[in-house]
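ZP: hey, is the adenosine-5'-triphosphate complex queued? I don't see it on the tracker
AM: it wasn't, my bad. submitting now with these inputs:
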Amino acid sequence: MEDKFQSAYQEEQERLNAALEEIDRQLEKLRNTPVYTGHEYTEQVLEASREQRRNNLSKLRTEPYFGRLDFQEGGQGERKPLYIGKIGADREQASDRPLVIDWRAPVASLFYSFTGGTEPASYESPDGIVEGLVYLKRNVVIRKRILERVADTYDRESDGPAVSDEFLVYRLGENKDNRLRDIVSTIQEEQDRIIRAAKNTALIIQGVAGSGKTTVALHRLAFLLYQYKEQVSAERMIIFAPNRMFLDYISDVLPELGVGNIQQSTFADWAAELLGLELTDTGVMETLNRWFENKGAMPVLTEETPERFKGSTKLIGVIEEAVSLLESGAVPEGDFSPWEGAVLPRRMIMRWYKEEYAPYPPAKRKERVMARIHRWIEMELKKSPSAAALKDRKKKGAQREKAYAGKWPKYDPLTIYKQIFRAVKPPADWPADEPEKIPAAVMKSTRAQLKKGHVLEEDLPPLLYIHYLLNGDEGVQKFDHIVIDEAQDFSPFQIAVLDLYARNHSFTILGDLSQGIHAYKGVHEWREMQELFAPEHTSYHALTRSYRSTMEIIDFANGILRGGVKSDLLAVPVFRSGNPVRLLKYGASRTEDISAALAELSSRDYRTVAVLTRTLADAEALFAELSVRFEDVHLIDGSMTEYQGGLSVLPLYLSKGLEFDAAIVADADLSSYGEAAWDAKLLYVGCTRALHELWLLHNGQQPSYLVKAAEESEAAEGWQVK
Ligand SMILES: Nc1ncnc2c1ncn2[C@@H]1O[C@H](COP(=O)(O)OP(=O)(O)OP(=O)(O)O)[C@@H](O)[C@H]1O
């Protein structure tokens, strides 16, 4: 065994030397080629390609590849070793094998999709299905040109029939800093299928916590840019994430994959910009306070809860009716007369409005008709008998034109929205019974909030829809692909509105219903989103394996899912074992104990340790106490745009999407978490943030599902640490 390993290492070292030599040589040659700065188009194109190669080779020279796959096409003839890296590179001399194959290339898919066995494997090339035999799948770790590790995950000539997880487990065991990383060397088969799925569908992915949803979505973007280079561009792709700090947390992955310029935003920021609205944080904080800061006093959630109702597509009909009422009564009563003696009959204006400009959406129709009237005035002015009359008519005409424009409806989404909710007076011809289509409680609370000048997050989809009905999509950029992370917190209306701005329903929608702690606004079943698309435009995938946490943590979290959330979307762990989950009962002082736990865990070799509390108020109070004892502890309060790593204190609901080497859940007891499914979901989110170590501190009175989860997963009790 040792010998085999030695010879594999030796072989890879020789191969690496040769590859680096060739990369250096190619790079040297390119660097010695003078840069073309002239105006000749063909030369400019050639220069751009040289520049691209210079960049690629500069990256390749430190880490040329990470994997090797020996494949025998057709099951006979030569066994070719294929080296797979983050970027592809050709050899200097023409050859049937590139120097490095891009991980996104069709043949490289075998490296991910092959799960072992002796049967032929296949991949889809542009010329059709290619079949053959896989002989070897090898992971090669190269850092800064040094060969650090060689690990065979499949060898046809050895006894193991399946691809082993050993290298994956080694990778997962590493500690994490403050950024999410790429996983190109260890993408798993179920993830690869999603990454390489065809572009023009709305993929809906239910994935358990830690199943790699965020990571997979980012790799999928890199894949789409490679596979559909002629059809898509990075600037026309967008990632929606829950907050700006999360965007910062994921911001390294795409550059690592050689992808830049993809738009990243929160839905609220994107919508506010499109609508030209200034959103205050007051509304967001009010919502969070209402749902998260009142321990045990969670408002009752029904289909008529304002956030849920406004997020459903039930408002669509009401909005369409309102806009159509405005549209049909838009042309002001009476003929238009710019000055005495000149009359443009309403009949004529109606003809322009109803016939000539009918294809345009209302706001554009109004613009066009008014422009036409303006042109008509200019023609009429030419008939003026004298210079004095011209001057007088010009003045009068301008005044009356302005007054006439003012008689048209105000095509402003917020005004129309306010009219629908009767926060301002609607036009006289609107039917009096219209408000009955909206539940009274929603009507009342929305009216009150709009009167205070607050636009909440849940108002954005209806506002955007009104905007779209008024203006269409002219002048607005449509997206080639939209990624929605933490999609369980998105409402169906948000997705429906985004679909208006997506080409070919090209979406990757990822989430986890078990983490649906924003259930007051999000979906309760994926069906709610699937129904927005025609069956041929959508497909559903499930990711069940969890890569983030140790088996012990996953077993414990599964216990919370079973007993508390009452969900059967359980996670399947990768066989990576660590310390048992630890439950610690407070002694004389809660703060002392939390402090001692933090001191113990941060003294170990962990880079990120978090203390998770139930509310922001708890986090702030605890932070005040801990910051006296720990120099470099940070408070995460939702207003941050950057995630710093290290030691953090944060409310559990803000930890979604993040991960920490070790997590301490403070007050994991009935003082903070009840028996309801929603409380269990919060704890599930918190517990699944931990990679290696999870401690729960409590007062001895715990919800029954926690007690049961601890028993079933053989969690440890007490302070005998290590
Ligand atoms: N194939 C893989 N190889 C190595 N690491 C992986 C793999 N898949 C996922 N991971 C790691 O697992 C962790 C979880 O990934 P990610 O945050 O993308 O999951 P998620 O499903 O979005 O999680 P959550 O819903 O809990 O926020 C990350 O550290 C990621 O690097």
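AM: back. The chain has 25 helices and 21 strands.
ZP: great, adding it to the tracker
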